[in-house]
Amino acid sequence: MTDNPKNKNLGINKADIITSITKSVAGAVPFAGSLLSEIIENTIPNQRFDRLIKYVKELDERISRIPTDKFENLSTNPRSIDLIEESFYQASRALSSDRRSYIINIVINGISDDGLKQENAKVLLKILQELNDIEIIWLRYYLDPTVNGDKEFRKKHENVLKSIYPYIGADKETLNQSAIQKNYRTHLERLGLIVNKLEINRKTGQPEFERTTGLPKVRYTRITTLGEMLLENIGFTKN
Q1: In degrees rounded to 5, what are phi and psi of residue 219?
Q2: pLDDT digits (tens, 9 = 90+) for 75-115
Q3: What is the spatial distance between Cα 222 and Cα 236, in angstroms, rounded to a whole number?
Q4: CA dihedral over 228, 229, 232, 235, signed as positive or negative
């Protein structure tokens, strides 16, 4: 069987990219280039390398700020390597600089310590993978869900945070958008990042239900400790 020219080209491109990455990250942190490149070569498909190059350069810049005694054993620490490898999978899919920043912050917080903190970082990366960027904005909203809370943040993301209600007689588009918005909050609750306090009927002691959806009415929503932990580790908290 003859080699496919396309496969040859992909192999050459991959080698070129790995070389480029190695050179780009070999400055302030001598071991980083070879370590990161080795993980990349074994784990990431070719078509996602352009995103990964950006991520690796940003990650290396952050690693260079860590005191030497914190990362001198990084290349031989299986927990650290596992955490970095997981971050590469996610970074290769990251479509925004914000998402890359979230991933980097979790990794840096993890490899700056050892033991339990690294295991926590791996868990947080897995949770982050479950969330889209809009859901992260909603989670951040619940840090201060009061009526007049965090006006600057709400103004910046008003296109996302504007509540859409499925009122009686609403058109299909409104109903669809309302359903999607409700799904964001349901997903955050399912992941244990927020918790809903239901509206209880004082006479019956049972939850009250919405007429349009048949779902329990929510009195208020608060962020959980896990939700706060995720936001803190991705660097998306109050100023």
Answers
A1: -75, -50
A2: 677 888 888 888 988 988 888 899 999 999 999 988 877 66
A3: 17
A4: negative
